[in-house]
Amino acid sequence: RYSRSSLLRLLGLPWVSFTFDDEGQRGSLDAEFLEGWSRALRIYPGSSGWLQAVDGRCAYLESELDATGRGSSRADEIEDPEQWAAEHTEERAALRQLRTGLAALFAALAPLERQLDFATFRRCLLSALDQLGFYTHLRSHHSPNGSEIDGAPSETEGPPSGTEGIPSGTEGRAFQRFCLLLEELSGLAPFLRQRRFPLRLLAEKLRSPLGEIHLPPDPPRGVQVVTPDEAAGFPCDALFLGGLVEGEFPHFPTTDIFLEDRERDALGLEDIDTAVAADRLLFYRTLATPRHHL
């Protein structure tokens, strides 16, 4: 719903550097600029609420400047008309830039507002990350020579199709895991009963696998004893997977004899298909981990 706090939190992230075209020039929108120039706005929920609030404030400033310029009685109440006019003109210019930046930001995030399948969600999310400046941050902070990232989208190449060339620092390796997880979820999508999900449910389905990713500070050597959660997506040459019992990992599908799926959904409980799919995903990710031997 684009609350003020959520936008400030997004634009305040260290890897976000959002730029946009402002009448042929490159404008930028950050948390400090948004917080400073939106204090006088009465904002209603949603992207349209922000734009309407900015338009309303700009219209008010226009009317005030026009009225004082025509020598109305309002001008007699102002102690320093020149300073007053300069301040109002500065605010109007800043709000116009703010409106352009917000419109560009909402356009970048708009595809994520729809119900999406996993493949489309992956494409839209990576495109949004590109527009928010994530790939620029990754190149400038973690690429030794500032070279291009093969996985980063561009206007001609579209969303990333792989993870080769991503810098090997901690953030780069974490992003590689993230891209692989998105690809794995896209591959499992045909087996789910529900094909399209709102952003809230997509985020929930990502949260658990992301929390299970084991990302040590440096790639360890030798023998590592880890759980399947930690091993999944953790590159190694050989993996020995013990304790496999049929029906326990991955679990067999079961039926809730007390609650139907719609009742479980109404109570906020995870549906059976989703739980089984999550276990199958972990099993698949574990099997796909070793480079040479399983």
Characterization of the model:
By secondary structure, the chain is mostly helical. It has twelve helices and four strands; from the N terminus they run αββαααααααααβααβ. It has a two-stranded antiparallel ribbon with strand order 1-2. A hairpin with a 2-residue loop joins β1 and β2 (25-29). α1 packs antiparallel against α2 and α3 (47-69) runs antiparallel to α5. The chain is elongated, with a radius of gyration of 25 Å. The two termini are 46 Å apart. 16% of the residues are buried.
What is the β-strand count?
4
| Tally of DSSP helical segments | 12
Helix coverage percent: 40-55%
N-to-C SSE string, H for helix and E for strand:
HEEHHHHHHHHHEHHE
Average pLDDT figure:
78
**Shape descriptor:** elongated
Largest sheet: 2 strands, antiparallel
Low-confidence runs (pLDDT<50, min 5 residues)? 144-162
Beta strand %: 5-15%
Distance between the termini: 46 Å
The largest beta-sheet arranges its strands as 1-2
Which structural category fits the helices and strands?
Answer: mainly alpha
Main attributes?
294 residues; mainly alpha; two-stranded parallel ribbon; 12 helices; 52% helix
What is the strand and helix layout of this fold?
Blueprint: H1 4-11, E1 18-22, E2 25-29, H2 31-37, H3 47-69, H4 73-76, H5 81-109, H6 118-131, H7 134-142, H8 170-188, H9 199-212, H10 228-231, E3 236-238, H11 261-266, H12 272-287, E4 290-293
Helix pairs in contact: 1-2, 3-5
